[in-house]
Amino acid sequence: MTDYPFFKVRGREVHEVGVGPIHAGVIEPGHFRFMCLGEKVHHLEIQLGYQHRGVEALLLRRPPMALAPTVESICGDSSVAYAWGYCAAVEALSNSAVSLEIDLLRGIALEMERIAMHVATLNGLATDVAFLQGGGTYGRLRTAIINATQRVCGNRFGRGWLRPGRAHGLSEVLRQDLMQTLTAFACDFTEVNELMLASLSVKARFQGTGIVSTKTAQELGLVGVVARASGVPIDMRIQLPGRVYERFPAERITELAGDCWARMKQRMREVDASVQWLLKVLGDTALDLTGSAAPEALGKPLAPETLCLSLIEGTRGPVVQVLETSSQGQLLHYKVQDPSLPNWFGLAMALRDNDISDFPICNKSFDLSYCGNDL
Predict the structure, then answer these.
(1) What is the Cβ-side half-sphere exposure of residue 291, based on CA atoms within 13 angstroms?
(2) Residue 292 pLDDT > 70
(3) Contact between residue 342 and residue 48 where contact means Cβ atoms under 8 Å apart
(4) Could you give the CA distance from residue 258 to residue 254 in angstroms, rounded to a whole number?
(5) What single DSSP character describes residue 110?
C-alpha cells in the first residue's frame, strides 16, 4: 500500500493533498490523493483496500446453506440485499421453490433497508452543510425505521430476517405496527424535505457541485442511485423485476442534473416511493405474510457443475453474486460485486474542477462502501 503508484500532475503551481486512510470520524478507511491548482481539484485518485478481509475465500469454508451470517456481514448497511441474493442463488442451485409470500417478505425487508440507508445519507448531507433541522430530524426518522426492522427480526440492520427457504413473518400486530410507523414517518419526512429543498444555503452548496453528466455516467458504467441521479434509468427492480416487482412494480425515478442536489433529490424521491410500495404491499389483506417456511430448501444438495447469477437492487445499486459448483455439488467459486466498485471512479470524476472544500459533500452524496469494494 505504501508503494502505490499515484498519478502525478506536473507544474510549479500544482500541489498534492493527501486525506486518509484515517479520517476525522467513525468511518471506513480509504486514501484520497488530490492534485490541486490552488483550491481547484484537477485530479482525484482513490486508494482503497484497507478493508480487505478475503471474503470470497471465506465463503468457501462453510457449508453452502450456512453462509447467511457471513454474507450479511460483507457490507453491513446492505445486509438484506446481500442475504436475498444469496438465498435466491442457493435456492435456485438446489431447485428449491419458495412461495410468493416469502419473497414478498424479502422485498419488504429490502425496501425498509433502502429507506433507512437513504435517510442516513440525507442526514450526513444535512450535517455536512450545517443544516441542523435536517441533521436532527433525518437521524430520528432513520432510527424509527431501523427500530421497526428490529421488532420484526431482532436486528436493526435486518440480519437474520432472511434465510434459505424462509423469512421472518409478520403477525397482524407487526403488520399494523409497520404501517403505522411508515405513515408517521412519511409525514415528518415530507416536512423536513421541504425545509431542506427551500434552504438557500443548501442550494448554494449542492446545486452545480460535483456534476456527473449522463454521458459520463454511461461511459463509466455507473450503477444504482448515482447513475439514476445522472439521468441513466438503470434499476434491476424494473429491468429484471422477478415476481415480487412484477406483482408490485417499482416506480421509475431519475434526475437529470447529476450534481449533489440531484443525488439528494433522487434519494428523497426513492424513499417516498419505497414507503408507498411498502404501504401497498402491507395493506394487501389477501396476502399471507406470516412467513411459513419451505423446509425442503434446507436439506437439498446443490446441482453439480452449475453456475448461478443473482442480482438484487440494493440501496446503492445492483448487488451481484455468482456461485459456481463443482462436479460434487460443492461451491467452487463465490464471486461478489458491490455496486460501489463501478461507482468509485464516478466520485473521482465528480471532483474535477471543483473546489477541494466540496469533497465532503460530493463524497457523502455518493455514499459508497469501502468494505463492499475491498471485500
Answers:
(1) 20
(2) no
(3) no
(4) 10
(5) H
Q: Which fold has domain 54-373?
A: Cytochrome-c3 Hydrogenase; chain B (1.10.645)
More confident residue, 264 or 20: 264
Residue 197 Cα to chain centre, angstroms: 23
Any alpha helices (H) in 230-369, and if so which ranges? 236-239, 242-247, 260-282, 296-299, 340-351, 359-366
Q: Kindly report the backbone phi and psi dihedral angles of residue 281, in degrees, each rounded to the nearest multiple of 5, phi listed first.
A: -70, -50
Determine the distance from the C-alpha atom of residue 269 to the mean position of all C-alpha atoms in its chain, rounded to a whole number: 15
Nearest to 350 by CA among 339, 336, 361: 361
pLDDT given for residue 10 in this prediction: 77
CA distance 256 to 250: 19
Where residue 162 falls among pLDDT bands split at 50, 70, 90? very high
Separation between Cα atoms, residue 108 and residue 235, nearest integer Å:
17
Q: How far apart are CA 338 and CA 342, in angstroms?
A: 8
Give the pLDDT confidence score for residue 60 in this predicted structure.
94
154 Cβ contact partners less than 8 Å away, ≥ 6 residues apart: 160
* pLDDT over 70 at 295, yes or no: no
Domain boundaries, the chain: 54-373
Cα dihedral 312, 222, 29, 123 sign: negative
Antiparallel, parallel or unpaired: β 166-167 and 162-163 = antiparallel
For the whole model, what pTM was predicted? 0.95
- What is the C-alpha to C-alpha distance for residues 107 and 158, in angstroms, rounded to an integer? 12
Give the rounded distance of the alpha carbon of 328 from its chain centre: 34
For 128, 180, 182, 192, 356, the CA distances from 197, given in Å and listed in that order, are 15, 26, 22, 9, 24
Taking only the tens place, the pLDDT of each residue in 120-134 is: 999 999 999 999 999
